[in-house]
């Protein structure tokens, strides 16, 4: 039995949570709180359940199979792993453009540099992590520090906004408004695309896998969802307090409005720090995980893994500098990642019943049934979102 390394397990949980809590996460939470009010609490509650089911299934299956998601997908159906990798890589790159932009905006607020200069500075810091010989350990420590920083700062802003907690609790179980698009976006922004695989592939690289370690892996998977959900709830409560007081959020930067209206100029500076830590930690998580979907395809890719990760970050930064701040993409990419989730989770569930993938492992039936339910719900919501998007 391989003894689980709790430091790596916690680092993997924080890596997944930090990947989820990016600039888009902040923007989505503010926008949907303004749209749905206290009823957004129900969307968060529903998304936490869907997130946990998806995460538990994916982490467990990858740990038992002891191979990355793309290899599992190729064994389920030849070529499917390449399609999954392409979708995740593309979604990760789109997400990273927003992440670099968010990190640049954070330094713009904190230091007064231009958003472009802030993006370049943040990209250099992220690249520095992967240049270091013990990049995995540095990435784990960095993810933990950034995760704790974001939660502590969000807690202060939530307290400062004097939110109507009683109403939030009531509407979280008895909503007066509902949005399928919000659920799709929030779930996609938490476990969609590359995000849910961030921690699982980190455990794979650190050799923290196997059936014997499943109890610890369960705790890691649920801890990651818990960390992201705590941050989502704190931001929701903060935004609800600001909106309930009759304030209107700036559509150009709704997340910044929440912090500034809750705590004045200090709140605005805190937003800068939260936005920067959210942006740069997501740059690291997105680059690492997106590239992890390609390195098993050829020995050269594996050998140049570090250089490809650095190139991934550089390209995202260059695209941002050429295009400018992608305001709406932060919402759109969450939905795109939500579209990828049914395929990714569906493939993992099929893989859980292939002996050439998991040997004699028996996936709990209840977990499979819940997983299939999530696939069905997310497919249905994805179809509805696409129909709404094209106006049919």
Automatic annotation (TrEMBL):
Alphabetized UniProt keyword annotations: Membrane, Transmembrane, Transmembrane helix
Q: Which Pfam families match?
A: Nramp (PF01566)
Q: Which residues cross the membrane?
A: 36-59, 80-97, 109-132, 141-159, 179-200, 221-246, 266-288, 308-324, 330-353, 365-390
Q: Tell me what topology the record assigns in the membrane.
A: Multi-pass membrane protein
Nucleus listed as a keyword: no
Compartment(s) where it occurs, according to its Swiss-Prot or TrEMBL record: Membrane
InterPro entries in the cross-refs: NRAMP_fam (IPR001046)
Protein name stated in the entry: Mn2+/Fe2+ NRAMP family transporter
Q: Which organism is it from?
A: Mucilaginibacter terrae
């Amino acid at each position: 039995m391989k003894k689980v390394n709790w430091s790596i397990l916690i680092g993997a949980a924080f890596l997944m949570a930090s990947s989820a809590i990016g600039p888009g996460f902040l923007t989505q939470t503010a926008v949907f709180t303004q749209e749905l009010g206290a009823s957004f609490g129900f969307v968060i509650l529903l998304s936490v359940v869907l997130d946990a089911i998806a995460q538990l299934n994916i982490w467990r299956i990858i740990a038992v199979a002891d191979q990355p998601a793309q290899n599992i997908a190729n064994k389920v159906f030849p070529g499917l792993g390449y399609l999954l990798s392409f979708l995740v890589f593309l979604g990760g790159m789109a997400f990273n453009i927003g992440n670099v932009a968010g990190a640049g905006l954070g330094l713009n607020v904190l230091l007064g540099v231009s958003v472009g200069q802030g993006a370049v500075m943040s990209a250099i810091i992220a690249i520095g992590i992967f240049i270091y010989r013990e990049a995995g350990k540095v990435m784990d420590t960095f993810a933990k520090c950034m995760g704790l920083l974001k939660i502590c700062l969000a807690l202060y802003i939530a307290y400062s906004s004097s939110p109507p907690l009683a109403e939030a609790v009531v509407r979280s179980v008895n909503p007066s408004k509902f949005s399928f698009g919000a659920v799709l976006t929030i779930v996609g922004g938490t476990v969609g695309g590359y995000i849910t695989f961030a921690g699982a592939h980190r455990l794979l690289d650190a050799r923290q896998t196997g059936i014997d370690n499943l109890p610890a892996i369960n705790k890691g998977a649920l801890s990651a969802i818990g960390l992201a959900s705590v941050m989502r709830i704190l931001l929701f409560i903060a935004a609800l307090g600001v909106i309930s007081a009759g304030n209107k959020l700036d559509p150009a930067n709704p997340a910044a409005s929440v912090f500034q209206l809750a705590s004045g100029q200090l709140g605005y500076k805190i937003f800068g720090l939260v936005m920067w830590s959210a942006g740069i930690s997501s740059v690291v998580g997105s680059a690492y995980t997106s590239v992890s979907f390609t390195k098993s395809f050829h020995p050269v890719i594996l050998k140049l893994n570090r250089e490809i990760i650095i190139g991934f970050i550089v390209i995202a930064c260059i695209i941002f500098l050429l295009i400018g701040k992608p305001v709406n993409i932060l919402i759109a990419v969450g939905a795109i990642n939500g579209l990828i989730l049914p395929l990714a989770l569906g493939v993992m569930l099929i893989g859980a019943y292939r002996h050439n993938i998991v040997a004699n492992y028996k996936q709990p039936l209840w977990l499979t049934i819940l997983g299939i339910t999530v696939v069905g719900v997310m497919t249905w919501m994805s179809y509805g979102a696409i129909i709404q998007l094209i106006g049919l």
